[in-house]
Known about the structure:
Blueprint: H1 83-98, H2 100-111, H3 121-132, E1 140-142, E2 152-158, E3 167-173, H4 186-207, E4 211-218, H5 226-232, E5 241-248, E6 258-267, H6 283-297, E7 306-312, E8 324-333, H7 336-357, E9 360-365, H8 376-390, H9 405-409, E10 414-420, H10 434-440, H11 443-465, H12 467-482
Parallel strand pairs: 3-4, 3-5, 5-10
Antiparallel strand pairs: 1-2, 2-4, 6-8, 6-9, 7-8
Helix pairs in contact: 1-4, 1-11, 2-4, 4-11, 6-7, 8-11
Amino acid sequence: MTCLSFGRRSKTCCKCGGERNMSASPSTSQAQPQPTEKAPATASAPSTLASAGQAHTCCSFVRDDLRPPTYSAHASSATALSGRLQEMASTIEHEVRQLDATLRDLSMAMHDKPEILWQEHATHDLFVRFFEGRSSEGWKVKPHAYGLETAWEARFEHRPDSKDARTIGFQSELDALPGIGHACGHNLIAISGVAAALSVAAALRKHDVAGTVVLLGTPAEEGGGGKLRLLEAGAYKSYDAALMVHPAPTSGTGAMLAVQPVMVRYTGATAHAGAAPWEGVNALDAAVLAYNNISALRQQMPPEYRVHGIIEGDNWAANVIPGASRLHYNVRAPTISGLKAFVAKVDKCFQAAALATGCSIEVEWEPAYADVWNTPLLSSTYAAVLEQRYGKVVPNDDFTASTDFGNVCYALPALHAEYAIHLDDPKTQGNHTVGFTDAAGSKEAHERTLEAAVGIAVTGARVLLEEDFAKQIKDQWRKWRDGADGP
């Protein structure tokens, strides 16, 4: 059994009380304290992919075949930063600090005017104007990029024709959540991308390192699959690596779940609920039955899996048999391949409700988000930077949320790291809560964002600076991708 609390794994098995092998444990875990102290610099060599049937050391209750393949936690001599990279890191950190006030202004302008998926027009214009104002530094900005009205791309090149020139890409997510604003901290993600991109560009100029830096403004992460459309349009095809960070209650660089959104519509027939209810076909009953069918399914769901949703309807009245209803659900699993099998079970819950009530049913499966798999050397380099420069320990813990960046991970070497921001009560103020919206506007969260931005900036700079490192991450990613059943 998996201990669940804020999507982090427990080090102690709640079945037998024994110590668990965290490199082979499930993709959920118990919350860890926010990292503030520097840990001992112990390191182990990177391991090969975990075998499909390996169980954790204390017992074998959890089915390990349901878990994604993982590498061991951060650690290797490969995370040691060279002297030249350290020099670039100092330039990067200095540049980020110089941008502090500007970044804060961008963040709060976005925070104070939240826009939901595909409606991020003011946010789009805010960042396009910002990069148009930096054209003298070599930045070229493309509004309405790749056929998406609210996407944008900013690009910087330094000696791009050099034989050793490579390309890295950062992400600025743009959309907010309906009703509660930037409760996932996308205003912080947006400025982390700006900080990383501008600081790496400054380092390339100062240290005369060849390379291209791309910052992609990505709309509709909260359910719209913006990055999926950008992938299809070729936005990532030139990248050697893609990197981003995300605020959360705790820090980590582990896996994230795959998710399949679905909209279900039941159509029945209205009737007077008092005079002739037997003349109606109750679409609300169909929705309630489907809801309860899924609740019954949970008993047989592996603990790493998730199904959750809401019932919706229009113009309902207590004295009318509802003739139409909707269900909006998310179905989650540790891997995209596991998600495919699980979706089939959930679909039967929907279909059974239609059969029982006599309603017709329409099921719209929206684009699936793949699980996040961070390339281990990118993760370990990021963790090393945060530890060496800020004394922060970044564990290789998993996070039981989902993102369209998962599909990017299946396309090229990538890193999606969570970083902790202060929450008065992490139990009730995590992502997608009003409390997190407030925290995302705090000065403390801004400071943590700048540190995380330095982490991905230095990691990205390493890809551009060191040919061997770039080759290692590509080989590492390819080995995983060849054995992964993904999009």
